[in-house]
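tool_call: predict_structure(chain=1)
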Amino acid sequence: MADTELLPCPFCGGTDTFVERADYSSAFVVCDSRVDEHSVCMARGPIAVQDDDGEEIPGGAGATAAWNRRAALASRPAEVDDEGLPAVLFDGHAVYSEITRKLGKAHCHSHEAVSATLDAVVRLVRAAPAERAQ
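tool_result:
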């Protein structure tokens, strides 16, 4: 794939995308695909900075690469558990690590408290499909 070829938008699936300059040395990708009669997606990718002086659009190659990484992840089928729910929701270690990283270990006084919170979240998520069906 050429460096300038953009994958479809990870949010709407549209292909009307382009690289926009943010300033003299950086750029990002914008999705200008129509989502209905009166609006467009307007999703924006991460801002990337210029790698070298020879870039046609400063930061364009990095912006394209970042957009395409996100788009490739969005196109992967989600891993699900036995009940058809996203498996990533129930990776307790990853969630515990994220909680302690965000809050700081000082706020997570006990593993038991975090585990009890995770168990409660899992119960709520598992109950959600049944509540939606009612």
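agent: The first helix runs from residue 60 to 75. Proceeding to next step.
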